[in-house]
Design brief:
Layout (H helix, E strand, L loop, with lengths): L1 E5 L5 E7 L4 E7 L5 H11 L9 E5 L5 H18 L3 E4 L11 H5 L24
Length: 129
């Protein structure tokens, strides 16, 4: 199975487990920093473990700055720890996960993905308007 991470929606973690024949989707409302909890809960519901994941795709070009970094970091940790390929995708590619399988398989193992951002950072310093 492959896993897709989508943290582009505010306060929602969208996860997809997929292979060539089936797709299972899971949504956990909450802060995007709870992504690891969402993955654990989803894998448990599917009677799977992290060892069943053969590759990870992550949406890295949509959503908030922090959410994008969280998705990329979690994907990179999976890739490094498991020695599996990773793929950075856009929000539009989430709708057809099976189309990503061949692209995931073409990626070298233990190669990192990086976050891309959809807007300029909005950083506010304390005490400044």
């Amino acid at each position: 199975m492959y896993m897709l991470l989508d943290t582009s929606s505010h306060n929602e973690n969208l996860l997809t487990l997929f292979d060539k024949k089936r797709t299972e989707r899971f949504s956990l409302t909450g802060r995007n920093c709870e992504l690891l909890q969402a993955i654990d809960e989803f894998l448990t519901k599917q009677d799977m473990s992290k060892d069943d994941i053969q590759g990870v795709a992550a949406v890295v070009g949509a959503g908030s700055f922090t959410s994008t970094r969280i998705a990329a970091t979690v994907a990179n940790v999976f890739g490094y720890a498991r020695g599996i390929p990773l793929l950075a995708i856009t929000k539009e590619q989430v709708s057809d996960p099976q189309a990503l399988i061949q692209r995931i398989l073409k990626q070298p193992s233990r190669q990192y993905i990086s976050a891309t951002y959809s807007a300029e950072p909005n950083i506010r310093l304390p005490g400044r308007a």
